[in-house]
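Notes from hallway chat w/ T.B., transcribed later so I don't forget. T.B. wanted the structure written out for a chain they're using in a teaching module, and asked if we could keep both sequence and structure tokens in one place. Agreed to drop them here.
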Amino acid sequence: MRILGISAFYHDSAAALIEDGRIVAAAQEERFTRQKHDPAFPTQAINYCLAEAGCRMADIDHVVFYDKPFLKFERLLETYLATSPRGFRSFKTAMPVWIKEKLFQKGVLRKQLGKIAGTRSWDGSLLFTEHHLAHAASAFFPSPFTSAAVLTMDGVGEWCTTSLGHGRGNDIEILKEIHFPHSLGLLYSAFTYYTGFKVNSGEYKLMGLAPYGRPLFVQTILDHLIDLKEDGSFRLDQRYFDYCTGLTMTSDAFHRLFGGGPRKPESPLTQREMDLAASIQVVTEEVVMRLARYARRETGERNLCLAGGVALNCVANGKLLKEGVFDEIWIQPAAGDAGGALGAALAVWHGYLDSARTVNGGDSMSGAYLGPKFGQDEIEQRLAAAGAIYNVLDDGALITSTVDSLAEEKAVGWMQGRMEFGPRALGGRSILGDPRSPTMQKTLNLKVKYRESFRPFAPSVRREDVADWFDIDTDSPYMLLVGDVLDRRRLRPNRDDEGLFGIDRLNVPRSEIPAVTHVDYSARVQTVHRDTNPRYWELLSAFKERTGCPVLVNTSFNVRGEPIVCTPEDAFRCFMGTEIERLVVGNCMLRKEDQPAALRQDYKDRFELD
């Protein structure tokens, strides 16, 4: 039994294929088209999934879409009517697209699937699942738990913005929902927009900016924007927002409340933006904490599963873990809309088809390494065709040479095995660096990633070493939990540094691993496991043997505005367009100084800013 799940037409389109309940493949369309957050029908992602499974569209038993278009249309229409005439401008913009395409999405999907099948229209079983059920299924069914509370939180699906479910065996019962326009995701996105970042893209920047600020506006938010109850339920005062009636997130009332209009994108950041970021982060954490406490009381469960875009807020997740509301937390690595493709497929397998579920002590995501991989012969052929100069090394020499480069504080592009599913690079498509270097963070941000200097980097650490460096001792394979660097690993700032505020705090070394230690001593930890990524684990082991440090800087292999690289050609282009000094693809080692000068590129302005 093969089931193909699809998410599309909003952002982060993706496809996922399961076979008899086993996750065979999953990937975002952006990785193939090279368009960040590509919302288009995921033709190339589907073709990849079919190839990975060794089948054709004719061999697919069910295709399932990750939300219900008619329910979403109902929500849009009711919202426009309820806010008339203020909502007319938004109504006028949206309706032609809905009438032309989205209202008849079933036909659009069949036509697109037919193109892949080589026919005019695909006539197989086409199913639809509700958006938040897809999120809940993506959270619970791949988790290592036989039963758990399930929280989903995002901007909005059809009507639902937050749901509490109870997962048991192969069943998820949705117990409570919060509906549009009351949305924690949209509240956070409103501050993303107001502080000058791009909605549905820059929320993680807001989270990274928060530790530079002071939570001065928390009470203002709680007094005016959100009516938060003890059980985590809430309502937003729509006078301060414009997402229902206009084409922006915040209203004039919002701007008056916070003393001015939104920051212009790419303009200098001020202490005000940092304080706003700190404030909305504190409020978000409080909402999540109250929802979690209620979920524990309501379900009686000791385990929690999370999905939806808000579940990518790894700072809130780390606070939740530390609070001990639940014994264990598992978060879907593709928590946003891309993961809805996988959740939709699993919802059909377990819910619609009532198939049994087996739990074997670990999750079923295969470390999130569910994307394309390339054999050594193919890697060499592709690199040679691109004009690359490389040496082929055996496994031991490859690890040794890479450790040499890292210990010399070189930036290393690292492309190995299958590509990751979800927004995080996890050692399959990563840029690596020495975390002990006090200049590595700035170098990677400004000279390699071409992004804002304030943004932190994550540490990869062997699972068996994590508790020796960070205040968490649990699995965090998907970089979705934040912990603090241990006290004994920290460096105390001198008196001159103690009084610094904002970005001025960036260049103060704070620990033995300053490149991955944020200004509040926090770190977005990835634990690396030998069974899911043996080569990356071996690299960390060799680096530890050489330096005494089992940690590496791990950031996604791309530049700002570019999707994470997928193919050897993508990796080589990014290598040649940035100041990455070494590239390791499979067993091929490339040195920048050996490459033809004519192949150098300027990647800095190649992609639209995120």
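Follow-up for T.B.: Residues 178-331 form a domain with the Nucleotidyltransferase; domain 5 fold (CATH 3.30.420.40). Might be a good example for the class.
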